[in-house]
Structures are given as structure tokens and as C-alpha cells.
């Protein structure tokens, strides 16, 4: 066993098909990794945690013995929500805390994806020695898969595809009742799910594709200590044909899979093959990096997940035609206001990030209609959650965007009334700041070049250095600052300097 250190850290990840414990030392090197036996996934909902509760508890007790052996004092326990509903998720978390004393933090697919991408893409660029690398990352999951696009090394976009390997297997099971050769129908099914991406992806020629989440590919082509390897195209096609015609017993023996995951091997290869065809990929790579690796690095503050989230918000703003200069102005001013008011609102830096993201995307509703654009912004955000943050965080951003303009949050409003009580005040606090910041560039001409803030009694003095007349900004400021006064108990005053 490796030298025991009191600074070892343990990360436990509960997924629908198994649990994983990873222990790292003070230098962020993996000391050991332990995987549970297979958990049975559901026939309808993949996340079958309720029926697997006894097995989950037994494995967690075993993990606790390993943690004690390695003198681990710091333990973080995460769970993959997948298709689990909120009520069941709370029940599972409560059961784990009661039975084994571990607090479980649920992560949605976008959070897990961001942590995976923040781990895999930098390593991929390093492996290829190309800091300007352009390509795609395909993460194959149980319920769904995701395709992410990076251009010149920068995150651009991602698409959630209803093509999980367990889901596809469920379809195959149903088709076996009616046809002897379901693979052709499954191939058509996969193609239909990918077809809607063709218009968005057609402009990219001969991209590079990195595949994550297909263990049999990783085992075949990656030699330790490497975590990324190139897959020979001819070899991949030959391997695919062999899997297509082989029995389950042959695959279990040859590819080191259990009796449950053997059913996911062919669907995984089908998804990879059809994605390669769609992208016209010239090179295929595979990685053995997994979600626990991303969680471990994120826990050690080694991953720029927040930078990826910011990039995703910027790309969403670009996609919906937001005025870049207005966005940057509002974001800068809102951050100044947030920092100046910290002794009053007492919100942490995570809320600062949420306000920053809201500043980037609050006007995307103009793409649909400038009239009532704030409402359009909210439902676009509800339908297209930002990568890397929780469902609650996405809800906060959507609601702050809803209330950043004409409407103010009031208890008799449908959306505000349905919010959890603990979210109402932070949403109002962030919305109030955004309204003031937005009003200072109501003309969209960035007339104000510099502002300074000063708290004086029950007043917030906003001194603005302007290069033009601020008649419109002053009118918007007076119209939008009522919420700010209600929330903070301060009367904001705009003092213009240098106006012509």
C-alpha cells in the first residue's frame, strides 16, 4: 500500500450502474481506486437507486473501511441524477445519510459533463501538442450522450442526444420480439437522433473526434500510464463487425465486461460509428478518463470549470445575437455593484458567478421578440440550461433574467410564487443589481466610460464619467431602481460627470 498521509482525499461517485471510490494524495495523485460490482439499471428509468439501496449501502460501508485504511479524513460523496426525479433523489440522499452517515450531493448531467470536458480537453490538446485544436468530444452515457465542439481550443457548443447505451439496448430488447436483425433498425434510429445536428455541423470539415465512456475501446487501445490514444480506423471497423456478429458470451470473455454491460457494447459502437459518419471524422481518439477523474481534479481546484461555464454563456449570447459591447458593460458594472454591496447582501462568490452569467444571457429573448424579451429570455434558458451548473443555479439565472427589465418579482406573480422560499431573496437581490447596471446603458451606446460607487447613509452614490448626454440613461435609471430600493433599503443616485 502507498504511504499513508493524513492529507489523502476521497471522492465517491454513485452512478446508476456502479459506485466508484477514488483516493488521491496531497499532490493530487491517485493512490487507489475501488469500483463496486454492477448495480442493476432500471428497465424504464436508468437510475434504479431505490431498488439498489441495500447494495449501495453495503458498498458504501466497504468504501468506508478503505477510507479508514488510507487515513482519509476528507470525503466528498456525489451522485449522478440521470433521470431521477427530485422527490426520489431526496429520499435516496436521506437514506444514505441515515444508513452510513455520508452527505450526498447530486450532480446533473450538465455538471458532470463540464467536469469531464474540463479534464479531457486540456489533456487531449496536450497529447496532440496542439493548443489550437479543433474537434469534438463524444461522451457516451447510459441514458443519453453528449457531443461537444471545440474550435481553436475554445469551447463552442454542446448537444444533448437521446442516445444512451442502456436506452438503445432497451430499444433493441423490444425489437428482438419483432425482428431477427434489430441492428439495422437501431442504426436508423441513431441516425434519426443525429440528423437534426447536420445543419449545425455541416460547415466543419474532417474533424477530430475524441470518445469518452466506451470502456471496451479504451481497454483495447490505451496502454498505461497513457489516458488517451488514437484508434486505427480499419481496426475499429473490423472490431465493430466482430461485435456485430458475436454472441454475448464471446463478448464477455473477450472484452472483460459483466453480464449487464455486455448489452451496452454494441450500442456504444453504433453511436460512435454513426457519429463518425455524421462528422466525416478523419481521426478517432479514445480516452479512459472518466467522471471520477473530473470530480477529483475539480475538488482539488485544478479544473477551470467556471471558465467553461462562462464560455458557454458567451457562446449562447453570440448564438442569439446579443450586443457584445452592452453585455460587457453591464457585466462589468454589475460586478462592481455586487462587490460594493457585499456587506449588505452577504452572498458568496458562487452567486457572483450566477449574476455574471445572467448579465451575459439576460437579453437573448430579443432573438424572439424585443417586446417582452425578458420573458422570452427566461423560457429559452429553462429549455437550454447552461452547462456546468446545477438545475437550481440555472433556475436562478432564468428568473434573474426574467426580472431584469420591466417586471419586478412580486409574491402574487405565478413564477415568483412557485419559487422555493430560500431562493426568492437571492433572486431579487441579483435582479435588482442587474436592473441598475442595465439601465446605465439603456441607449446601448456605452456613454459611460467609468463609474465609482460610494455608500453614504441610506444612499448609494453612483458617479458616472460620461462622454455624452445621459438623458435616456437617467430616465431608465429612475424607472428601474425601485426594486433596488425595496431590496437593499438604499436609494441609488446617479451623478453624471463629464457629460457634454
UniProtKB/TrEMBL annotation:
Domain Ppx/GppA phosphatase C-terminal: 312-465
Record-linked InterPro entries: GppA/Ppx_hydrolase, Ppx_GppA_C
Pfam family, one: Ppx-GppA_III
Superkingdom to which the source organism belongs: Bacteria
PANTHER family xref list: EXOPOLYPHOSPHATASE, RETROGRADE REGULATION PROTEIN 2
Protein family: Belongs to the GppA/Ppx family.
Protein name: Exopolyphosphatase
Amino acid at each position: 500500500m502507498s504511504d499513508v498521509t493524513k492529507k489523502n482525499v476521497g471522492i465517491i461517485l454513485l452512478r446508476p450502474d456502479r459506485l466508484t471510490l477514488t483516493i488521491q494524495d496531497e499532490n493530487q495523485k491517485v493512490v487507489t481506486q475501488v469500483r463496486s460490482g454492477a448495480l442493476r439499471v432500471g428497465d424504464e428509468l436508468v437510475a434504479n437507486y431505490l431498488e439498489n439501496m441495500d447494495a449501495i449501502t453495503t458498498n458504501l460501508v466497504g468504501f468506508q473501511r478503505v477510507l479508514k485504511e488510507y487515513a482519509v479524513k476528507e470525503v466528498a460523496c456525489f451522485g449522478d441524477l440521470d433521470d431521477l426525479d427530485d422527490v426520489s433523489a431526496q429520499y435516496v440522499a436521506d437514506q444514505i445519510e441515515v444508513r452510513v452517515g455520508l452527505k450526498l450531493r447530486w450532480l446533473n448531467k450538465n455538471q458532470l459533463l463540464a467536469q469531464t470536458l474540463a479534464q479531457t480537453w486540456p489533456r487531449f490538446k496536450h497529447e496532440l501538442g496542439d493548443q489550437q485544436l479543433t474537434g469534438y468530444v463524444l461522451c457516451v452515457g447510459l441514458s443519453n450522450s453528449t457531443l461537444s465542439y471545440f474550435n481553436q481550443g475554445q469551447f463552442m457548443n454542446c448537444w444533448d442526444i437521446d442516445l444512451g447505451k442502456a436506452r438503445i439496448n432497451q430499444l433493441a430488447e423490444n425489437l428482438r420480439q419483432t425482428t431477427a436483425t434489430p441492428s439495422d433498425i437501431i442504426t436508423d434510429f441513431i441516425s434519426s437522433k443525429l440528423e437534426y445536428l447536420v445543419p449545425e455541423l455541416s460547415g466543419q470539415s474532417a474533424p477530430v473526434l475524441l470518445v469518452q465512456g466506451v470502456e471496451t475501446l479504451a481497454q483495447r487501445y490505451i496502454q498505461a500510464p497513457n489516458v488517451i490514444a488514437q484508434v486505427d480506423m480499419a481496426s475499429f471497423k473490423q472490431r465493430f463487425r466482430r461485435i456485430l456478429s458475436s454472441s454475448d458470451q464471446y463478448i464477455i470473455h473477450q472484452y472483460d465486461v459483466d453480464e449487464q454491460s455486455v448489452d451496452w457494447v454494441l450500442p456504444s459502437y453504433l453511436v460512435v460509428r454513426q457519429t463518425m459518419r455524421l462528422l466525416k471524422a478523419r481521426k478517432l481518439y479514445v480516452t479512459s478518463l472518466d467522471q471520477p477523474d473530473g470530480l477529483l481534479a475539480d475538488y482539488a481546484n485544478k479544473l477551470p470549470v467556471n471558465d467553461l461555464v462562462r464560455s458557454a454563456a458567451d457562446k449562447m449570447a453570440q448564438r442569439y445575437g446579443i450586443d457584445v459591447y452592452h453585455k460587457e458593460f453591464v457585466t462589468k458594472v454589475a460586478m462592481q455593484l455586487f462587490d460594493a454591496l457585499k456587506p449588505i447582501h452577504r452572498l458568496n462568490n458562487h452567486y457572483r458567478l450566477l449574476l455574471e452569467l445572467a448579465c451575459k444571457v439576460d437579453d437573448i429573448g430579443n432573438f424572439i421578440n424585443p417586446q417582452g424579451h425578458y420573458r422570452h429570455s427566461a423560457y429559452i434558458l429553462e429549455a437550454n440550461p447552461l452547462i456546468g451548473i446545477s438545475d437550481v443555479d440555472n433556475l436562478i439565472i432564468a428568473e434573474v433574467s426574467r426580472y431584469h427589465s420591466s417586471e419586478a418579482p412580486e409574491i402574487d406573480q405565478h413564477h415568483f410564487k412557485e419559487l422555493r422560499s430560500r431562493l426568492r431573496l437571492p433572486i431579487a437581490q441579483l435582479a435588482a443589481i442587474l436592473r441598475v447596471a442595465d439601465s446605465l446603458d439603456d441607449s446601448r451606446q456605452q456613454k459611460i466610460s467609468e463609474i465609482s460607487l460610494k455608500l453614504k447613509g441610506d444612499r448609494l452614490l453612483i458617479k458616472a464619467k460620461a462622454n455624452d448626454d445621459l438623458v435616456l440613461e437617467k430616465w431608465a435609471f429612475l424607472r428601474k431602481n425601485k426594486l433596488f430600493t425595496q431590496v437593499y433599503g438604499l436609494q441609488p443616485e446617479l451623478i453624471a460627470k463629464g457629460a457634454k
